[in-house]
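Known limitations

Structure tokens in this collection are predictions and should be treated as such. Users comparing against experimental data should check residue numbering before alignment. To illustrate the layout, the record for S-acyltransferase is reproduced below. The input appears on top and the generated tokens appear beneath it.
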Amino acid sequence: MPAVDAGNGMGGMGRLAWMNVFRFCKALRVLGHVMVLAVLALVGLSFYAVAVETLGRGIAHGAPHIMVLDLVLLVVFSTLVFMLVWSYFAAVLTEPGSVPEDWHPFADDETATRELQRWNTGGDTLYDRADPQRPRYCRKCHNWKPERAHHCSVSGRCILKMDHYCIWVVNCVGLLNYKFFLLFIAYTWAACLLAACILMPGLVEYFRGEKKSGSTLVFLSFVIDAAFVVSLLGFLGMHLKLLSVNCTSIEMYEKQRIHPWPYNKGWRSNFDEVFGPSWWQWLLPFHTEAERQRMMDTVLAAPLIERVGAVEDV
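Generated tokens:
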């Protein structure tokens, strides 16, 4: 069995470990906490411009039919903002799903111990990379990892079905909070679109020179909301496409693609895997305990897939 040295034998790479730039990724956590405040500030600005400066004035001083329309719009917009904030903090505070301690892909603990000993002997040699169904081991966590798990350089652990680390939510987006992240994007896009439409008349008045109290704030809020509508549309579309084929952002950009994609079970099954089978749960950012356990069991029991010639990740 050909051996590949994991340490000093890799062309002196061990001597360059101090140059590992990924350790600086942990600084993103500090930036992320600032981003939480930025998100709340942007939401507050938009809500004030829409609810107080625009709809509030219409409800207080408008004709009866204007009052009714503005009241309906206020209820709809407030609901979107509430769901946006709920989804946001669900994505921020929910554990994305880590590999359980002492997990292994082998039939029994004895086999796992034997394989780990083989890993740690013979000059820290790795298993044969030509093995089409080799198990995956994280050299940073010192633990076996299941399919679709990847090591997050920011949080310093392996995340199940990792999609990416998002500084907006100060968290890694993975198995257990991907649904909340998608809902956050969707509700944000819908709220910004509605806000831009509501603020449009005020924008027209602003450029006509009919400046009123709060018109500058309305103009600023419209620009921000419109920018998010445009930018999030492509991002949301990309993630809906990935959702339909059961693929993550990391897997989309992997150097060696696998055809056919073994996790694609059809768009409806792929959707249910993330959002759950119950329709009443689809728009709510939470998982029942049974759903969480089902998701964990599914990803941990995923069979090894063939990686002929693929490079082992960490």
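For this record: The beta strands are 136-138, 143-145, 150-152, 157-159, 164-166, 171-173. Residues 45 and 54 are 12 Å apart (CA to CA). Please report discrepancies through the issue tracker.
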